[in-house]
TrEMBL record:
Pfam families: CoA_trans. InterPro entries: CoA_trans_fam_I, NagB/RpiA_transferase-like. SMART domains: CoA_trans (SM00882). GO terms for molecular function: transferase activity. Belongs to the 3-oxoacid CoA-transferase subunit B family. It is an enzyme of class 2 (transferase). Keywords: Transferase. Its EC number is 2.8.3.-. This is CoA-transferase. SUPFAM superfamilies: NagB/RpiA/CoA transferase-like. The keyword Transferase applies. It comes from the Bacteria. The keyword Cell cycle does not apply. It comes from Streptomyces orinoci (Streptoverticillium orinoci).
Amino acid sequence: MSRAEVCVVACAEAWRGDGEILASPMGVIPALGARLARLTFAPQLLLTDGESLLVGADGAVEGWLPYRRHLALAMGGRRHVMMGAAQLDRHGNQNISRIGDVRRPARQLLGVRGAPVNTLNNTVSYWIPRHTPRVLVERVDMVCGVGYGRGPAVDIRRVVTDLAVLDFATPDRTIRVRSLHPGVTAERVRAATGFPLDIPGDVPVTREPTEAELRLIREVLDPEGLREREVTG
């Protein structure tokens, strides 16, 4: 079992209990997680090819999803999006636009894109393949995805990183560690985070894949091993 496979299962768990809702994963491991969830504990989960079709976990066409219908799902809150983040702060504010001062940024990234609409209208989770102080920061350089405490109500379900699973189930809606991946210590996660992090003393270990899930990941969903390129260690 690899760290990447633990992360696939952790991403899959983010969609547990969602019912018939459109999963919008961004990245290899989130996509594998959504497909694994569909094949196991979330058979009602809807998947899309990203263009105009609803598909099954094997890619077989299940229905038509024209752009207007996709927008209706997005604006009506019938999606659960798992996005990436160049920066994420303790309140769940996400940055995918720029690093540095707005007048002279050190690096230009994707731009705001659909992050504000995603966070304001849908359940959102995040996938961070490199948990470092440069990504988990005290304050984002620009707010793209809206976090807690900025006015509008948001629903940030999970943050899955290569070290841990985090959530915002705290009284003040600041981030905490929900579980540590196998072999990862609390000290390592604290050192890799750019702000003081709440890690309960009895924090559990992230659930490992079952034998059936490992078979699906390795033989059905990702026989080429693309997951291992996204997570090392």
